[in-house]
Specification:
The protein contains twelve helices and 13 strands. The protein has 325 residues and is of the alpha/beta class.
């Protein structure tokens, strides 16, 4: 058996391309999809399997970020999509909100997938991966052991599976939902001098947004005075994946609304990581105007939904403000 990871291995190397033994991809997130797509399109006859756990579903890129001419008439600002989900979520209706989002925006090679990490996948990529995979195992890999000269995949459930000697195991497991809480590493330290971007104390699901906006608050001296909500988003994804969409959208809309009241307008207009930039300017302006007119009124609803979800599901949620030097 050969065990590799995509972050340190080039699949165009001869020691991979010169073999035709099966490939076992461990994981079902975006890295696993990209790896499966690369291998199966480059070598269509290769035997590729996926160990997917509970499976991951993705934003349908063709719906959320349409390309070509469709970009000019079908691209809706992402903030508008997130806002509509946040407006629907009341802290209790996890399944209803998730089902509505999945019906309109979601795609996956695994129809029964349960976990959502806000990755993007196109219809063509999804179809190609689905057609090329030899099998999908709905379990978690625990180990690979030798049984009388025959390698065996050992799964968390206790099941074992024999594999062809010389097979490749590609580790595509992620790091977004590791165990780490706000108590270990809050996004702002006491006194407001240290800023940390992590999933255990997240103010939005995307680290790019968190880094951009929290850094501006830090330079303005407001990092420990604006009552941003933080959530252990990793705990939500691990323990309550059905609630992840509603909670993450509420969290983002609540906190971005607070930040909008504290920073200059140019902080938003100069934000290069803003997903809304994919949409046409008239739609963006209309969406931004609606947000500025309504975010204060909606804020209490978002906070109430987050409080209810936190109490009901038992995860850490709340503002980190008022620390002293």
């Amino acid at each position: 058996m050969k065990s590799v990871s995509p972050d340190s291995f080039d699949f165009s190397q001869d020691d991979f391309t010169d073999t035709d033994t099966p490939v076992w991809i461990i994981g079902s997130g975006k890295t696993a999809m990209d790896t499966a797509y690369l291998i199966t399109t480059r070598d269509p006859g290769r035997e590729v399997h996926l160990v997917a756990g509970v499976g991951t579903y993705f934003n349908n890129r063709d719906a959320t970020f349409p390309a070509g001419m469709r970009r000019w008439w079908a691209a809706k600002p992402v903030s508008q999509i997130f806002g509509s989900v946040a407006d629907m979520y009341d802290g209790t209706n996890d399944e209803q909100v998730t089902a509505a989002y999945r019906a309109r925006y979601v795609i996956s090679p695994m129809p029964e997938s349960q976990r959502f990490l806000n990755g993007n996948l196109s219809r063509s990529e999804c179809d190609a991966i689905s057609a090329a995979l030899r099998s999908v195992v709905a379990d978690y890999l625990a180990d690979v052991v030798d049984r009388d000269g025959m390698p065996q995949l050992v799964f968390r459930s206790g099941e074992e599976m024999s594999v062809v000697p010389g097979s490749w195991v590609v580790n595509c497991t992620g790091y977004l939902i590791r165990e780490k809480s706000a108590d270990d590493d809050p996004y702002v330290s006491k006194g407001g001098r240290v800023l940390t971007i992590n999933t255990g104390s997240a103010i939005v699901q995307f680290s790019t947004y968190a880094a951009y906006f929290l850094t501006h608050l830090a330079f303005l001296g407001k990092l420990d005075s604006v009552p941003l909500y933080q959530i252990d988003i990793g705990a939500v994804l691990r323990r309550h994946p059905q609630a992840a969409i509603g909670i993450s959208c509420c969290l983002a809309m609540y906190n971005i609304g607070l930040i909008a009241d504290e920073v200059p307008l140019k902080v938003f207009t100069n934000c290069g990581v803003d997903f809304d930039r994919w949409a046409r300017m008239p739609l963006r302006l209309a969406s931004s105007t609606q947000f500025m007119l309504t975010h204060r009124r909606k804020r209490e609803n978002y906070r109430r939904a987050l409080d209810i979800a936190s109490q009901r599901l038992g995860f850490n949620c709340g503002p980190l403000v008022g620390a002293t030097a």
